[in-house]
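Sequence design from tokenized structure. All designs in this work follow the same two-part layout: the structure record, then the generated sequence. An example of the structure record is given first.
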């Protein structure tokens, strides 16, 4: 090889190296991050100042996008169609591109080889506030080596390199940036709701329910006029607001194509719903169900009309959520009063009247026809809470025309609640039992008769038996001086207290087993009944077994009071009928576990303690 040939090769190598460095080589890795400013720093475009975004693609497989931010900071798609955008995703896309660092700036004579001439891969235009034209427009061209891509700001002559991930950041479809809420609305601002259901396999074509919010309270306005269940409607709105789209099927004109509507069961929707707030009306139609694949949740086709019409698929939960009848949406509370402010109640059943009053210490007492007794605080709470939250199982139409038909012309039970600072009590009228076991009731000041479940009413019918304190004995254990036990099949015995010890006095005279005797005394002290039997439904001695008690315990106290507990047979629930001999009409129930603890025999009482 001669010198001339060698020189030519050297010149070619130097030229190739120069071209490579000019077009492809990035600065050394030793360059600091501070020497590589981000796009938003160089062009003074912080993400929060961007008000409008347009993205166009050279590849026609992608749809051009236009996004606009409103005064509240939320983004919306306006091209290729109108729809709410996912603001978080739009902001993330802007952060990703604007935070990209400019690796290298190049002065080049020709843009063609960098993909930055007439047809860049992506064109990104950004508007800031009060700008009629884009603040900046970035042309994104071909990829370079070292994971870079060429970029040019439209108004500048030079180009620069940024990470090639910018292509992925900006290559978005409308679905990628779209808000996947089925309907995006402010739940607090909704003032009207309309539901219309198509009844399949019935002669009734459809039914409609309309609700309106007035002064913060919801009302049913069609097909009846009634107070609505505000909690039920607010829960419905909250769940509807949180429902997400599974897939988008069609938008704009495509969403109104007759063939498509018929295919998706949206030509005759099963349910049509309209919501109205201060600014917009949102329409939602539910179409055909989509057969679920094994192990997956079912879906339905839905047509939504907000900015433009759209068809999408969502969880089948939306059908159950919006399939509402007038009964589902109306307020089902039977009577309205403030239980926490109640200071007196009165239950009148025939000639028997039970009055409950709350004293200054907040303690409830009962005034029965015969005596004043302490009330069971838990039972009184159950009464107040139960009536306050009592809900109709069904409403009776045109019910006030014949109250006698429901036993409400002369109610079998009347319950009145007096509230602090109120002169007129809230009154619940209780009538007959219906064939299905529910009970007809009506608030005195209401025209509406309802049927309610019988559990609470059955307790109210017990009167004082339900509400009285369940403590049937209350003495100090050291006050007990004599115990007599008589059990069927066992030898009766009597014990006498001598000092701190017990001694058998019959049928033998000897020291007794203190532990065994004290165990019974402990059970009798503070004896609590499970329940009392109402005086209006006192069972016979044949049923209770009191004619021949299975157990009889007599306790004598230092104050010379004597109590004889008689225990008879069991009721249907397995609890034992019991009473005190001096109050034979006051019958109560004791559970089997307590009865077992009251039982002992002479054999055990005579056994010496270890």
């Amino acid at each position: 090889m001669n010198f001339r040939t060698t020189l030519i090769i050297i010149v070619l190598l130097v030229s190739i190296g120069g071209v490579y460095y000019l077009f492809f080589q990035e600065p050394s890795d030793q360059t600091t991050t501070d020497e590589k400013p981000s796009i938003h720093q160089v062009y003074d475009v912080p993400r929060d100042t961007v008000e409008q975004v347009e993205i166009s693609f050279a590849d026609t497989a992608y749809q051009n996008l236009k996004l606009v931010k409103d005064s509240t900071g939320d983004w919306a798609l306006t091209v290729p169609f109108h729809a709410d955008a996912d603001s978080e995703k739009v902001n993330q896309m802007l952060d990703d591109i604007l935070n990209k660092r400019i690796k290298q700036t190049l002065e080049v004579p020709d843009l063609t080889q960098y993909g930055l001439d007439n047809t860049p891969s992506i064109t990104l235009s950004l508007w800031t506030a009060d700008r009629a034209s884009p603040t900046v427009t970035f042309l994104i061209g071909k990829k370079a080596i070292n994971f870079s891509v060429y970029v040019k700001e439209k108004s500048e002559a030079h180009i620069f390199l940024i990470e090639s991930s910018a292509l992925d950041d900006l290559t978005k479809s409308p679905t990628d940036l779209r808000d996947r809420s089925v309907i995006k609305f402010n739940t607090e601002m909704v003032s009207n709701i309309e539901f219309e259901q198509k009844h399949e396999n019935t002669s009734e074509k459809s039914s409609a329910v309309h609700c309106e919010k007035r002064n913060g309270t919801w009302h049913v306005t069609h097909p009846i006029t009634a107070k609505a269940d505000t909690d039920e409607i607010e829960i419905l709105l909250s769940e509807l607001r949180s429902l997400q789209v599974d897939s988008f099927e069609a938008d704009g004109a495509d969403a109104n194509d007759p063939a498509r509507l018929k295919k998706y069961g949206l030509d005759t929707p099963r349910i049509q719903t309209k919501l109205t707030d201060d600014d917009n009306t949102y329409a939602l139609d539910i179409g055909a169900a989509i057969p679920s694949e094994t192990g997956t949740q079912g879906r339905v086709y839905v047509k939504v009309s907000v900015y433009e019409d759209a068809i999408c698929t969502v969880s089948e939960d939306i059908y159950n959520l919006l399939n509402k009848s007038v009964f589902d949406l109306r307020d089902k509370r039977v009577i309205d009063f403030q239980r926490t402010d109640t200071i007196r109640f009165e239950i009148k059943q025939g000639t028997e009247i039970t009055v409950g009053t709350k004293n200054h210490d907040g303690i409830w007492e009962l005034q029965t026809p015969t005596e004043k007794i302490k009330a069971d605080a838990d039972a009184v709470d159950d009464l107040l809470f139960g009536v306050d939250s009592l809900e109709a199982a069904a409403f009776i139409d045109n019910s006030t025309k014949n109250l006698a038909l429901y036993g409400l012309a002369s109610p079998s039970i009347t319950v009145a609640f007096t509230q602090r600072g109120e002169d007129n009590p809230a009154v619940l009228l209780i009538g007959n039992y219906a064939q299905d076991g529910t009970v007809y009731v009506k608030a005195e000041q209401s025209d509406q008769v309802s049927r309610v479940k019988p559990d609470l009413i059955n307790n109210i019918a017990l009167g004082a038996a339900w509400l009285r304190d369940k403590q049937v004995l209350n003495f100090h254990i050291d006050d007990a001086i004599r115990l007599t036990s008589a059990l069927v099949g066992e030898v009766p015995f009597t014990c006498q207290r001598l000092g701190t010890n017990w001694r058998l006095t019959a049928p033998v005279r000897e020291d007794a087993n203190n532990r065994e005797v004290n165990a019974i005394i402990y059970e009798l002290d503070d004896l609590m009944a499970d329940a009392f039997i109402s005086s209006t439904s006192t069972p016979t001695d044949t049923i209770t077994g009191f004619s021949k008690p299975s157990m009889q315990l007599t306790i004598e106290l230092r104050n010379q009071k004597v109590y004889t507990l008689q225990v008879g047979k069991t009721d249907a629930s397995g609890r034992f009928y019991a009473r005190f001999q001096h109050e034979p009409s006051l019958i109560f129930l004791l559970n089997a576990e307590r009865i077992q603890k009251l039982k002992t025999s002479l054999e055990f009482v005579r056994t010496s303690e270890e």
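Confidence is low (pLDDT under 50) at residues 19-33. We note this feature because it recurs in several other targets discussed in the main text.
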